[in-house]
Design a protein that fits this description.
The chain is an alpha+beta fold and 193 residues long. The protein folds into two domains: 6-105, Arc Repressor Mutant, subunit A, CATH 1.10.10; 130-190, Arc Repressor Mutant, subunit A, CATH 1.10.10. It is 41% helix and 16% strand. It has helices at residues 6-15, 32-44, 77-82, 87-105, 130-138, 146-153, 157-171; strands at 48-52, 63-66, 69-75, 144-145, 176-181, 185-190. The strands form two sheets. The chain has a three-stranded antiparallel β-sheet with strand order 1-3-2. Strands 4-6-5 form a three-stranded antiparallel β-sheet. A hairpin with a 3-residue loop joins strand 5 and strand 6. The chain starts with 5 loop residues before the first helix and ends with a strand. Mean pLDDT is 78; it is low at 109-122.
Length: 193
């Protein structure tokens, strides 16, 4: 794991649970030349990315680019991995964010006027946790049955079902599918985006 300064760790840790992994606003007291130096170093290392700010959603600006436009900062997959978030989870959350951005830019429907308060928010998942293990099991090509997850985690079946339906599907918004498979029972899958 790379060596991060306290400031870099705080910026990435605060960005991880935010919707779309927004790194803005920066921690209190970090501004001016110190903020510029910290952010530039993190962009250089690939931990932060400067993207166009969505002014309709009132995203905080990192810098203005003119004509009422500006950029904001988001934590990248590499940044999340640098603070110990499971790579599988980081890539899944990054891909879901990109899919949402592509879907929003497609003029299929009327533009949204406000952010959906019930929309799932990104949540940081630490490396080596049971939740991270379960996500890795679900991303296997064959998926995972409740029995297989129980054997791996030591949890009771109702706890596994609760995590899948409440913690992963509802809270994280992961597209988990299920199907009955002869000899295995219900098998849950998370298609790697």
């Amino acid at each position: 794991m790379p060596k991060l300064t306290d400031t870099q760790t705080i910026i990435l840790s605060r960005a991880a649970p935010r919707p779309d992994n927004l790194a803005m606003p920066l921690p209190e007291g970090l501004h001016g030349a110190a903020a510029q130096k910290a952010v530039t170093a993190m962009i250089t290392r690939g931990w932060l990315e400067e993207v166009e700010a969505n002014l309709c959603r009132h995203e905080p600006l990192w810098r203005e680019t003119g004509d009422g436009h500006g950029t904001t900062l988001i934590a990248t997959e590499a940044g999340l991995v640098a603070i110990g978030i499971e790579p599988v989870v980081a890539s899944t959350m990054t891909n879901l964010r990109k899919a949402k951005l592509e879907q929003a830019s497609t003029p299929q429907s009327a533009p949204e006027t406000s952010a959906d308060p019930k929309a799932p928010k990104a949540i940081a998942i630490r490396t080596g946790t049971k939740k991270a293990q379960i996500i890795a099991l679900l991303q296997r090509p064959a998926g995972a049955s409740i029995t297989e997850i129980v054997d791996t985690t030591g949890w009771l079946p109702h706890s596994v079902r609760g995590l899948i339906s409440g913690g992963l599907k509802k809270k994280l918004g992961l597209p988990i599918t299920s199907e009955k498979v002869q000899g295995r029972g219900t098998v849950y899958k998370l298609e790697a985006a």
